Amino acid sequence: MHGAQFETDAYALVHTIPGAIPGVVNAHTGAEDGGNDGQAYPTQAHMRVVLLEQLYGGTFSLENSVWPSWRAWLETAQYPTDAHVQFLSELIRMNGSTTDARFFLEHPVAWDREHGRKFRASVFSLTYCPYSRAAKARLSALQANFSIVEADEIGSSGQVTSFKSLLKLVTGHPTFPKVLLNTKVLLDEDGLLVGMLRDAGALPNVM
């Protein structure tokens, strides 16, 4: 499959699945997770799923990818009218079929849950940052199951700066570390870390 085919397949999905077009309400029966129901997408959370998929799948690139365009959307808060098609096209490209994109449109709640289970806990860290080291030590002490992305090891100094900027945009969180549970950004001011890790399935059952 090539780029034009991804887009063609994405357009076919949005015109055949009720509620797939933002602003066009799905006349479903009202069952829970009955479809996208005309909601706007992609959101920051949807972009985080794509980012994590690419980082852990070894396919992430700051250039020659969707990220220059998506970064501009986030920076300006102005999305093109076909942003939803571009997002679906990327899901199709990443998975080599329309299966995941269709799942997203037909069962968005289950899609979020499924991808959340896949990633559990992720820490975006800086190797030289004492707060990052403390967060990793705390998670290790809790025997949490977590993955680490060292932002300052992503590439050249220019790429590191660009990646840090992208992380700020997709998480809405300017400082490090950035801890994601099931792709949701965790801020632990309320002291709920242990409970949230357990709910995310990132702690051993004995905890």
TrEMBL record:
Q: Give the originating organism.
A: Malassezia vespertilionis
Q: What is this protein called?
A: Glutaredoxin domain-containing protein
Q: Which GO terms describe its molecular function?
A: oxidoreductase activity
Where the record annotates domain Glutaredoxin, the positions are 123-184
Cite the InterPro entries for this sequence.
Glutaredoxin, Thioredoxin-like_sf
